[in-house]
Amino acid sequence: MTGQRTDAHNGYDDLARDAAPASRRVPGPRRRGDHRPGIDTGPAPGRAGSRSRAGDGHRAVRVALVALVVAAVGAALETALAGRPGWGFAVAAALGAALAAKSCTRAGAWWLISAPPLAAAVITVVCEQVAGATTVGSKGLTTAAVRWAVDGFPAMAAAEAVLIVVLAIRGVRAGQHGGRKRSRRNSGA
Question: What H or E segment, with its residue span, contains residue 17?
Fold first, then answer.
C-alpha cells in the first residue's frame, strides 16, 4: 500500500504526538439518532439538501395518488358521457402513468410497474357499478367480470405501455449521464 502509513493505528509513527489515541473498536451499523462527536452529520455527498428516505416515500405516495386521481377522473368523465369507461379512460390512465413514471424513484419504479393493471381494474369495476352498467347476481358475476376485463383492458394496456416507455427513456438517459461521468473520471482530467 504505497503512500499509506501502516506503522500505527492513528497514522502517526510516534504515539506521543497524539494526545488522544483513536479507539480500536470497529464501528457497527449506525441507526437513526446516533451521533458521534466530531463527525459531520450533514447531508451525504451527492444528495441535495437534507432530503431523507421518508421524504422520498411521501413523494412517491403523492405521485401515485396523482396518477390514480387522473385515471379515476378520466374514467368518471367517460362513464358519465358514454355509460362505461372507454378510450377516454385509457388516455387518462396513460397520462397518469406517464406522470408517475416521470417522477418516481428508481426503487419505486419496480412497484409502479405492477400498478396500472390493478388500478385500471378497480376503477373499471367501481365506475360500472356506480353507473349500473352491469348487475352482479349469482350467475351474472362471471359475465360481469369478463365485461369489466374487456372494458378495462385498453386502459391497462395503454398505461402499462406508456409507463414502460417512460421508464426505459429515463434508464437510457441515466446510463448516458453515468457513462459521461465515468469517462471524465477515468480520463485523468
Answer: none
Query: What are the tens digits of pLDDT across the range 136-177?
Result: 666 677 788 888 888 889 999 999 999 999 999 998 988 887
DSSP 39: S
pLDDT band at 50 (very low <50, low <70, confident <90, very high): very low
* Grid coordinates belonging to 2: 504505497
Among the residues of 12-139, which ranges form H helices? 53-82, 87-103, 106-113, 115-131
- Mean pLDDT for the stretch of residues 67-87: 87
**Whole-number Å distance between alpha carbons of 182 and 189:** 11
* DSSP track, 126-160: HHHHHHT-S---TTHHHHHHHHHHHHHHHHHHHHH
Phi-psi region of 38 (alpha: psi -120 to 50; beta: other; left: phi over 0): left
Distance of alpha carbon 113 from its chain centroid, rounded? 9
What per-residue string of b and e applies to 45-58 under the rule 16 or more CB within 10 Å gives b? eeeeeeeeeeeeee
Given a contact cutoff of 8 angstroms between Cβ atoms, the answer to whether 97 and 67 are in contact is: yes
